[in-house]
Amino acid sequence: MTQAFRPANEVTATTLDDYNRNAAAFRAGTQDHDVRQNIDALLRHIHAEPPFRILDFGCGPGRDLAAFARLGHRPVGLDGSQEFVAMAREATGCEVWHQDFLTLELPDAHFDGVFANASLFHVPSAELPRVLAQLNACLKPAGVLFSSNPRGANQEGWNGARYGVYHDLESWRGLLGQAGFIELEHYYRPAGLPRERQPWLASVWRKDAEARLP
Question: pLDDT for 119-157, tens place per residue?
Fold first, then answer.
């Protein structure tokens, strides 16, 4: 993995191009992944009357978007890949927004929860505080953010044609705290395996209504 010295928008465009070119293979390879643990982690912390308004941030082909809809909630998908957006719309019938993570246009205080499963690690570290602040702003007071990222030692760079940042727990805590979130829980995935065989760091956060962001 090598560090990229390119503008963030070029980094993101290259990553999205790879997803667009490999959308069908990605869908086939991930459609049977069991992420019920992650979905449950988000839902049990939302203190609102269902159905919940949920933003599936980086919804991909729509697997989890469909799961939220089947549970009776009102999910909206968002993805930067045009191919994924088309797939998700067709597969779920849900509203799906085509937005690059670096140029988000989100409604204020609109969602009860944000589900960011395997998506935020693609945001270059220099841009991440701004993106997290935007996700905070789109949540209702006391709204909940779920995130799951491949963990690491805070290295950043290319993995093939996709860019990623591989946070450890302490750096992730610092970033989310600065963005106005309070930690509710964290865990490593897949469940039941030794830590060295759990590459995913999952965490759940509540919007701090008292926080004053810059």
Answer: 999 999 999 999 999 999 999 999 999 999 999 999 999
How far is CA 128 from its chain centroid? 12
| Residue type at 212 in one-letter notation | R
Q: Which tokens hold the place of 87? A: 């797939």
Backbone angles phi, psi at 200, to 5 degrees: -110, 130
Residue 190: is the preceding peptide bond cis (ω within 30°)? yes
Place of tokens 């799906």: 96
Q: What is the DSSP annotation of 38-50? A: HHHHHHTT--SPS
| Residue 190 DSSP symbol | S
Angle in degrees, 0-180, between the axes of helices 128-138 and 169-178, rounded to the nearest 10: 60
Cis, bond preceding 51 (omega within 30 deg of 0): yes
Q: What's the pTM?
A: 0.95
Distance between CA atoms of residues 198 and 188, nearest Å: 6
- For residue 59, what are its two tokens? 């919804």
CB 104 within 8 A of CB 124: no
- DSSP letter at 153? S
If you count them, how many residues does the chain have?
214
